[in-house]
UniProtKB/TrEMBL annotation:
Residues passing through the membrane, by range: 346-371
Location of the region described as Disordered in the Swiss-Prot/TrEMBL record: 381-403
Enzyme Commission number: 2.7.11.1
Biased composition range(s): Polar residues: 383-392
Protein name: non-specific serine/threonine protein kinase
Gene Ontology molecular function: any one: ATP binding
Start and end residues of each Protein kinase domain: 13-273
Keyword annotations from UniProtKB, A to Z: ATP-binding, Kinase, Membrane, Nucleotide-binding, Serine/threonine-protein kinase, Transferase, Transmembrane, Transmembrane helix
Domain of life: Bacteria
Stored PANTHER family: MITOGEN-ACTIVATED PROTEIN KINASE KINASE KINASE 20-RELATED (PTHR43289), SERINE_THREONINE-PROTEIN KINASE NEKL-3 (PTHR43289:SF6)
CDD domains (alphabetical): STKc_PknB_like (cd14014)
Lineage: Bacteria, Bacillati, Actinomycetota, Actinomycetes, Mycobacteriales
Catalytic EC class: transferase
Length: 483
């Protein structure tokens, strides 16, 4: 049973003040008499702690978190057991948690909210790469210093693995509001579960309330599992509507349809604030691989509705499509096309040619007469000079060169090539599509393209690189040449 130990001694620690209390333990402001420093000391107690497996899992996760070294994760100084009580010695951070901030402010400015999510996302991705899933991302577990630096705390080490968090008095509804649907069903958790919870935190920072609400735990669960994500602009009209597809994807019911990483959530949310979020970032699952078009020039057909990339395929002529069609008719672009001359224009050209031949014939007769018949009738031929002209073809260096991939690039399809071995052709074709759909060819601009291979979305910086070629760089060392 937990109790207030302020003013008492716990091993080498003097407990000076209570910072917080939860279902599984208490956190104290303590003084380490051995190392002469103030620390945050977490003492674990309550149901589940006596389980023989809990102490072992506690030590294992402490060791993993202590090795992370990510700036947005509070460093762990020490951990262990004293007199039968498990403890965790951490750096003492002066600040307040996001719940306290929300109680005082109501909502945060969008830029501030996204900045905090980006920082927490960095901590989560570092943990996920080490095989640690937090399992309890919520405003209470995010500390913010007076300078705006955010820390993610309590990496699941204070939670019984068999405890759903739904029965603790006073915390049930608050915890449930940030749990992913698979957590509510008792399914195994993954990094996607943390991405969902971080998206729920972002939703609340922007609107002042969690995405799904209810008066009881069961009402919150039903809303989480069954309801669509609310429109954030209806709750806060000052927000840009481009945030809606971002949050819809982050809060997708199916873990496979969420952002691949917490960092990706932050990147796309940042773009949404400047109205640059691509329409492909929605909760709609990606289409199955299917036919698409690789154009030989840079003409793109304007879509009549939402477009979803379905995989690369070379186009060599009109094709039959077995799925939804987004084109206005069969298109064949094997070279720049020119409209045929109208019949009236063809007649004009024909007449002009005939007249030209007649004039040339008359001039020829005149020259013949002057050359062989002088005005004195002496029979002497007048001197004449024949001038021969010819067109000398340009050398290859002088011929105008069509835009093409730079030396060393691997051509994927007409108009697109890759510059590094880690860049896939399906991703390169999608980069070209997004770039050409977002503005004129040859302009420098940033885009975000989704990889059909990895399922992730990557920010790319595109700029002209000479000879009519635009080079896009970004992602994981991806280089795409568009021409």
């Amino acid at each position: 049973m937990m109790h207030d130990r302020v003013g008492t001694q716990f091993g080498p620690y003097r407990l000076d003040g209570l910072i917080g209390r939860g279902g599984m333990g208490e956190v104290y402001r303590a003084y380490d008499t051995v190392r002469d420093r103030n620390v945050a000391l977490k003492l674990l107690g309550g149901s589940g702690v006596d389980d023989g497996t809990f102490a072992e899992r506690f030590r294992r996760e402490c060791q993993l978190v202590a090795r992370l070294g990510e700036p947005h994760i509070i460093p762990i100084h020490d951990f262990g057991e004293i007199d039968g009580t498990l403890y965790l010695d951490m750096r003492l951070v002066e600040g307040e948690n996001l719940r306290q901030v929300l109680v005082r402010e109501g909502t945060l400015a969008p830029e501030q909210a996204v900045d905090i999510v980006e920082q927490v996302g960095a901590a989560l991705d570092a943990a996920h790469e080490a095989g640690v899933v937090h399992r309890d991302v919520k405003p209470e577990n995010v500390l913010v210093t007076p300078t705006g630096f955010a820390y993610l705390v309590d990496f699941g080490i204070a939670h019984d693995g068999t405890d759903s968090g739904l029965t603790k008095t006073g915390t049930a509804i608050g915890s449930t509001a940030y749990l992913a649907p698979e957590q509510l069903d008792g399914a195994p958790v993954s990094s996607a579960s943390d991405v969902y919870s971080l998206s729920a935190v972002l939703f609340e920072l922007l609107t002042g309330r969690p995405p799904f609400q209810g008066e009881t735990v069961s009402a919150v669960i039903k809303a989480t599992v069954l309801n669509q994500v609310p429109d954030v602009t209806a709750l806060n009209p000052a927000l840009p509507p481009t945030l809606n597809p971002v949050l819809a994807r982050g809060l997708a019911k199916d873990p496979a349809h969420r952002f691949a990483t917490a960092r990706e959530l932050g990147v796309v949310a940042r773009q949404a604030l400047s109205a640059e979020a691509p329409t492909s970032f929605t909760a709609v699952p990606p289409a199955a691989p299917g036919p698409t078009q690789a154009f030989a020039d840079q003409t793109m057909i304007a879509p009549s509705g939402p477009q979803y990339y379905s995989g690369p395929q070379q186009y060599s002529g009109p094709q039959q499509y077995s799925g939804p069609q987004y084109y206005t008719g069969p298109q064949q672009y094997t070279a720049p096309q020119y409209a045929p001359e109208k019949s009236g224009s063809a007649l004009t050209v024909l007449l002009a040619g005939l007249i030209g031949l007649l004039v040339a014939a008359l001039i020829g007769l005149g020259v013949y007469y002057l050359a062989f018949n002088n005005s004195d009738g002496d029979g002497a031929a007048a001197p004449s000079t024949t001038t021969m002209t010819s067109v000398v073809p340009r050398s290859p260096a002088e011929q105008p060169q069509a835009a093409g991939p730079p030396a060393g690039a691997a051509v994927c399809a007409d108009g697109v090539a890759v510059g590094t071995s880690v860049t896939t052709c399906p991703f390169a074709i999608e980069v070209r599509r997004v770039y050409l759909n977002s503005g004129a060819m040859g302009e420098a601009r940033g885009i975000v393209a989704r990889s059909p291979v990895t399922g992730g979305s990557y920010a790319m910086s595109c700029s002209p690189s000479g000879s009519g070629v635009v080079t896009c760089r970004g992602g994981d060392n991806a280089v795409v040449h568009i021409y």
